[in-house]
Specification:
Chain lengths: 492, 303
């Protein structure tokens, strides 16, 4: 208990005699019966700054622990304005590693309990395999009964939302940059799986929709155009985009499947008219609209996708977005009434002999050898597939057609094998995966999960299963036995 | 060839970029070899010498041999597996050769047993699609072993003619190899060129060769196919003369310049038809459900 006056660098204490002096009122709660009086004027400024910054600092600490994504560095006192602005930037620069584990990485989520209640880290590999099997099962179960056609000749418009909402930083570095990066990968994958199809790009900015590139089959031109136009501002208008796409897609031939993929970041849409009418028109023109949202589920997008038969999904994070986007690369099951079957006239050009000099019709300059000659008008083109600029004939080569054949003849998903069968010595298949010869038993004689082809009954490990269904599209067992069907029947 | 047979990890500074994994697809079709100009035993001696030379070029090189039979395909040899009895030598050949030859003999007798009935004269083809698929699965396993792995490539030693029923499967394998960046080299021993292998080598960036003098096969193999992928950039290897990418029509099997494609199933026709013979779609009008499925593989009903 102080009797006289105590002093700190900026304040001095005096016992309170009366409670009327203004400077003592605010200090009562702090020090009880002592009056804390600031020293003469130069120090008063520092005193108030200290108090204010202490207040801000304690409240900032609370917000830090509530935030999950952004880390906030520990700033020096006196920089509270900068602290507030930097909240949104979200860099964990100033966090220590142990703090990042809680703030950014959520280390408690990578543990789980096993059956005896002990903690162990999550086995990512088995989860990945389980997810894959569920996905294959759901995909295949819808196509077993009827013979589902796939729309192999697709005309797809990708609508990129470049409104104000696309500059949000919840996807790092910004939604727009993440979307552009994954669109590039999607375009290449799309042309790989659908070589006869075409893509066009549309952007929404300032409430207007603009066509960035026309429908075309060359991936590089689309990617280049997109990367050059990455600025965002203004509102987003769904109706304008749909009207524009509708106008373009009405001009394509009737055998093509019309699709729109909208990558929507905004939470609202500013439309000049009735968007329900536009949706009905799209439905009448048989345009299949799908939406991938980046922020939250919106009713109008859900309604649009339901009416036109597309799919709506909302991305949780960057890798989920990539997954959702790449799901649109393989051809969707086609609704038979949507596209009229037709015979399309196509040309199969031969490669020109080396050393022949001719003027190519795409670059309008003389080139030596190495191109293709259109069989109808003999013009030279540089690469396939393309449309001849002179006579309009679609030019393809047989591998381009062959790329789509695996969609028509898919292999059935493999069945899981019960582990006890592997130890049966009378079983024809050995204990190694038929594809890669890797042993299906891990040391300790506990067999890992494996799968078997329903037709040839060969065993495969899970990694081969994924490779076979996603990339190879041939079952090595069925291809390696000429009489596999006969053999499997006699075994039954 | 189990998990314990994988080689011990190599310190990274010893691992240079010219280490290769060569998967050899050996054609053992008896219908072809009975009428070939080069006897199978002489062919095998060329190939064995070639495989030994590959293993000598770099101690980390790996060779895998898959036999392409008439009725089945199987792995014959893997140089990274521990041999069962390292002291087994029959006096004339070292252990690795005898191992390979023994397995090959078992495979050929097993393959012959699988010939069910007297086959039609048209079947002279071997199961190239099967051995390509097995090779690619094995290569994927090598990719999974981590960042240090040999550069894989596939060498097809093929003599039998192409089987048109394998077209789709072979093309699937080719595209998958192209995606994984695995070149497919081809050395055609038979009398005629192989369109499948020409396309395979062109699309995947491999080398296609039809040797003119089969007596000197070892020389062709060691000068053209022995180099690893890194060193190929510095060599002039045989270029594809003219790959024919034209398609054949489904009705007459003629090669055509211009044709009509069904927009539903992508079958190729040379003349305008009213109805597609593959998928049954009627052209020019809207579809109805329940089209007849003619060549669609029948699926087993799910229980």
């Amino acid at each position: 208990m102080h009797n006289g006056t105590g002093s700190l660098p900026f304040v001095q204490f005096k016992p309170i005699k009366n409670f009327t002096s203004p400077s003592s009122v605010s200090c009562i709660g702090l020090v009880g019966v002592l009056e804390v009086k600031p020293r003469p004027k130069p120090y008063a400024f520092i005193h108030s700054i200290l108090g204010f910054s202490l207040f801000i600092y304690t409240s900032m600490n609370d917000m830090e622990h509530r935030k999950t994504n952004d880390g906030e560095g520990r700033r020096l006192d006196g920089e509270e304005e900068e602290e507030e602005e930097d909240e949104d930037e979200g860099n964990g620069r100033g966090l220590d590693a142990w703090e990042r584990a809680y703030a950014d990485e959520r280390s408690w989520e990578s543990l789980q309990e096993d059956e005896s209640g002990l903690l162990r880290p999550i086995d990512n590999k088995t989860i990945y395999h389980a997810q894959y099997r569920r996905r294959i099962r759901s995909l295949y179960s819808s196509t077993t009964t009827a013979r589902i056609q796939k729309g192999l000749i697709r005309y797809l418009y990708i609508v990129v939302d470049l409104s104000r909402a696309a500059s949000e930083m919840d996807f790092k570095p910004s939604r727009m940059a993440v979307v552009a990066k994954h669109i590039e990968a999607f375009i290449r994958e799309f042309f790989d799986q659908n070589p006869l199809s075409q893509i066009g790009l549309v952007t929404i900015k300032d409430g207007l929709a603009q066509c960035l590139t026309d429908l075309g089959g060359s991936p590089d031109s689309h990617v280049k155009a997109l990367m050059g136009k990455l600025e965002c501002s203004g509102d987003s208008s769904l109706q304008n985009a749909l009207d524009l796409v509708h106008g373009y897609l009405n001009q394509i031939p009737s055998y093509g499947h019309r699709e729109v993929l909208i990558l929507y970041s905004a939470l609202s849409t500013c439309d000049p008219g009735d968007i329900m009418e536009t949706i009905q028109e799209c439905k009448k023109s048989k345009i299949r609209c799908s939406v991938i949202g980046l922020s939250a589920e919106i009713f109008i997008c859900r309604h649009l996708c339901q009416e036109t038969g597309g799919s709506y999904s909302v991305a949780l994070d960057e890798s989920h977005f990539k997954e959702l986007l790449l799901e649109h690369a393989p051809p969707p099951p086609a609704i038979a009434e949507f596209a009229i079957a037709n015979l399309i006239k196509m040309g199969f050009p031969q490669r020109a002999a080396e050393g022949v000099i001719s003027i190519c019709s795409c670059h309008k300059e003389a080139k030596v050898g190495g191109g293709y000659t259109c069989p109808r008008c003999k013009a030279r083109v540089c690469e396939l597939p393309t449309e001849c600029r002179i006579c309009g004939l679609t030019l393809v080569s047989s591998p381009h057609l062959a790329r789509s054949y695996h969609h028509l003849f898919p292999i059935p998903p493999f069945d899981e094998v019960s582990l006890s069968l592997l130890n049966n010595p009378h079983q024809r298949s050995s204990r190694a995966c038929f594809g890669c010869q890797e042993s299906l038993l891990i040391p300790g004689n506990k067999p890992t999960l494996c799968v078997a082809c329903p037709k040839c009954k060969q065993h495969f490990c899970l990694d081969c299963d994924i490779y076979i269904h996603e990339s190879l599209h041939n079952c090595p067992g069925c291809e390696s036995f000429r009489h596999s069907k006969i053999v499997s029947v006699t075994e039954e | 060839m189990g998990r314990s047979a994988v080689m011990a990890p190599v310190p990274s500074k010893l691992y240079s970029d010219d280490v290769s994994l060569l998967v050899v697809l050996l054609d053992t079709n008896p219908f072809f070899w009975s009428t070939a100009s080069l006897p199978f035993s002489k062919f095998l001696s060329h190939v064995l010498a070639f495989l030994n030379s590959i293993l000598l070029i770099n101690q980390l090189n790996q060779v895998v041999v898959i036999a392409t039979g008439c009725n089945s395909c199987n792995f014959i040899f893997d140089s990274s597996s521990v041999p069962a009895n390292p002291n087994l030598e029959n006096g004339r050949m070292p252990a690795l050769c005898s191992n390979l030859l023994q397995k090959l003999e078992e495979f050929v007798t097993g393959d012959e047993k699988l010939s069910k009935e007297v086959l039609a004269a048209g079947i002279g083809s071997s199961l190239l699609s099967g051995s390509l698929s097995m090779a690619l699965c094995y290569i994927q396993r090598v990719f999974r072993t981590g960042p240090l792995h040999p550069q894989p490539r596939i060498l097809c030693l093929q003599g039998s003619p192409d089987g048109p029923e394998q077209y789709v499967a072979v093309m699937n394998a080719i595209f998958s190899a192209q995606r994984s960046m695995v070149p497919i080299d081809s050395c055609v021993i038979g009398a005629q060129h192989s369109a499948f292998l020409q396309q395979a080598s062109y699309i995947t960036g491999g080398v296609y060769l039809k040797p003119q003098q089969l007596d000197g096969l070892f020389q062709y193999l060691s000068t053209v196919f022995a180099t690893d992928l890194h060193s190929r950039r510095f060599l002039q290897l045989p270029k594809p003369a003219g790959v024919d990418f034209r398609a054949s029509c489904f009705c007459h099997k003629n090669t055509i310049d211009m044709g009509y494609i069904c927009s539903v199933c992508l079958s190729i026709f040379c003349k305008h038809h009213k109805k597609c013979s593959t998928c049954g779609s009627v052209f020019g009008q809207a579809q109805s459900d329940g089209n007849s499925a003619t060549d669609r593989k029948r699926k087993t009903p799910e229980t």
